[in-house]
Model the fold of this input.
Amino acid sequence: MGLFDNMLKDGESLIKNEEALDFEFLPKILPFREKEQRFIAECIKPLFKKRNGRNVVMYGPPGIGKTAAARHVIRELEEETDEIYPIYINCWQNNTTYKVMVEVCEHLGYRLVQNKKTVDLCKIVASMINKKTAAFIFDEIDKAEDYDFLYFLLENIYKKSICLITNFKEWLGMLDSRIKSRLMPEMLEFRQYNEYETKEILKLRASYAFPEGVLEDAAFNRIAKKTYELRDIRTGLFLMREAALIAEDQSKKKISLSDVEKAIAKLEDFSVKSSAELEEDTRFILSIVK
Done:
């Protein structure tokens, strides 16, 4: 065996699909959330008959598949029909009624939003959606600064289903009573993944991300164990990516346990930094390890 056989050559990478390690990546299969996806689909189902759908609040800790489950349903809806507008909006990124309405217009294909007031955008949204029906997903709804857009949709959109995603079940109790009485949502709890489920989910992601045999068994098992301890799938994705980069820096052809331990040390090092210093993708880690 040559001295350099186990070293990566120029231009080689341990990762075949880096997107698979991204928090926003939506795999073709979403295991262990079939029941929740069916529940969301049942809430939307009346829209196919031009009837009003049901509203639902999805809640549970971060990193356990709430967003992925909702986006899976939206993706299937897009493939199934053109008569229902599928509208997914993140309320951390779009945290005011004006921003929400601009984003809704974007989903509807309406681009002439410049210099228009919120009330004008609301009228445009209503006129377009009321010709069909709409399924709304508002992710991180508790990050919105106002909820006038919810009141507007409940009052002015005739046939719709509204799905709200939050980490906090208590959020609903703080909602304005006028909105809550019109919303009348179903409640859908997302439980934590157990140890077996955590391992299987990470195994699936690893199969997308790495060529076979690149991630050593001991390294993968350590990642799975740490992910289960922290109860957040995104932790595992972070560790797989960081361990791969650490191994690549050493020109290694495999990701070993020592690479994972270094990635875990980096994970824990975030706890002594200011969140403002961190990349957006890794800020969530700080809240886990504090």
Remarks:
- Residues 206 and 240 are 8 Å apart (CA to CA).
